[in-house]
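Here comes a specimen:
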Amino acid sequence: MTTVEQSIGAPMTRVDGLDKVTGAARYAYEFPTQDVGYVWPVQATVARGRVTEVDPAPALALPGVLTVLDHTNAPRLNAEAEVSADLFVLQSPRVAYHGQIVAAVVATSLEAAREGAAAVRVRYEREPHDVVLRADDERLEIAETVTDGSPGLVERGDADAAWAAAPVRVDGTYTTPVEHPSPMEPHATIAVWDEDRLTLFNSDQGPYMSAQLLSALFGIELSAVEVVAEYIGGGFGSKGIPRSPTVLAALAARDVGRPVKIALTRQQMFQLVPYRSPTIQRVRLGAERDGRLTVIQHESVQQRSTLVPFADQTVSSTRMMYAAPSARTTVRVAPLDVMTPAWFRAPGHTPGMFALESAVDELAEALGMDPIELRIRNEPELDPESGKPFSSRNLVACLREGAARFDWEHRDPTPGIRREGRWLVGTGVAASHHPDYTFPSSAVARAEEDGTYRVRIGAADLGTGARTALTQVAADALGIPLSRLRLEIGRASLGMAPFAGGSLGTASWGWAVDKACRALLKELDGYAGVVPDGGLEVVADTTEDIGRRADLSRHTFGAQFAQVRVDSDTGEIRVDRMLGVFAAGRIVNPRTARSQFLGAMTMGLSMALLEIGEVDPVFGDFANHDFAGYHIAAHADVPRLDVVCLEESDNTSNPVGAKGIGELGLVGAAAAIGNAFHHATGERVRDLPIRIERSREALKALKAARSAEKRRPGAGEPESRVG
């Protein structure tokens, strides 16, 4: 019997690589479609009010324009559908935010649609608006629930009494701005109606779940909705559900009786795609003098729209990261006249861990303790929030491995003294955390008469390598070489599957694929291993399996290290090196996993130093709504980027042993850079991004402190050291 080499754990090249580089891979906007129309949205120029008149005449007079849709003539959606209120496109004259779709032009060419949209005249009844998040907003209220289902207010112990009694305390307020998901491929859709059957070729993170939403919204059976998302050029959470442009395309196609396309421009992406809410976070840490935490308090103020009570899970990581007998976390939200914020890579955990891990660094300085030792000293045996055992928790191993690789033991803890020429140099550390989610999924495995196998699942590959990883899982379960396997993903009709979000894809889909393939082999045993005429297939569903899992606390962890240099003359900030050490279960494909971690860490650098959505309070829009004004880091912005994945065996989550990784690599990266900046300059910047203006302020403060030191009797020049 021929032994087949194991696929899981091998650094396989992407199975779809050739299709992508040769252009054979088809993205949503590229599917061939006959007699297609093009839709271009007309967007609100007021931040709040109502539409009083839409004059379509100038647009309808243009060649190629087929129709102008607005709230008076657009097809009706199912008003009873339990979906996000901002998906009810063109159903009401109410304007809830600047840029909202208030009309649309459908034409025979993209150029005609765009020209027509510019010609439509819309009149409004304006109302006063408020788009600025403030910590003292009178409308702030504690969120009933946040995105992970937990309450907006959670407390254990007596947080106030513990704070009052703590011998060592730090109290800081940290802010993060609006951040925009900016995938390479914009949101794009082709909508096709065949009587009452809707097919969407959509840039979509979750075809099956999107089909569920659209069937409810349009009041049709789930079996009458097909969502095709074979290839996707990134999403970062923004394509987790269909957004308003997708709904617009479906409405337009139904109205004109022909297929309709839409692809957002980069400027429209900033207006019509949800963003990460800004946050104002206060973190208070109380500890004994030996560094053991006695209390953690973390409050996050963030914004929601007036349409949807969305509240991100910004404080959820705080409740289980470190052992402390008392803790209180609070999420308060302000309803503003803005588009609804939504998921953006590692939603909530990313800004929340920036605040927490910055505060931990401040506590270490107050205690005169190494920041790695402080984290290790507060390592919990059980989940501090739930009291449950961890399925695995290797944060300490990540910290120690990273410290050894980063030469941490030779780090001088004194901030603001290490120089290399005119550059101030500092190093920082922060922990990473993300929950380990697994959702029910189904898969089909089929044996063909010619000796090949086919596996089908409604998964989506955002470009992360999911198609390759699932191919490896299936090949190992079947015990066959990859050449005998065909994997089909990217369609709602392939069966129940969660979206590619929350770092839950490979774990959830892989379990179903593994189960289906092993069940198929059992079925084949009944045929003495011979495939019957017509082939043989089985369907596997993991819903009951997930329900039978042990009641454990499931998470992934990591440690982020960064070295930053600051030009003492100009304030320029450079990140010389980043190292991420992660423990995230069994790594299915080290090559694609490394790619995910590298990209996520670069995104963390971008968050730390560059990204900010500048809110225009007068118009209610973003002043920087393209890449000329909204800056994003690239690989050239960090010369040395290293990733280490520790071996971690945790088969309690799923039989494959896989956990999510894409979001884990982002969480903590910005805090590590911020902590390194403080180590370089001696000044703490609690507001992201750390731009050059703030860097120069830090340098001024450092120079003032040194001047004051020189003026003290007997004081000399501070020693300059490298180490």
About this structure: The longest helix spans residues 505-525. The chain is about 25% helix and 25% strand. Residues 717-723 have pLDDT under 50 and may be disordered. The first strand starts at residue 37 and ends at 43.
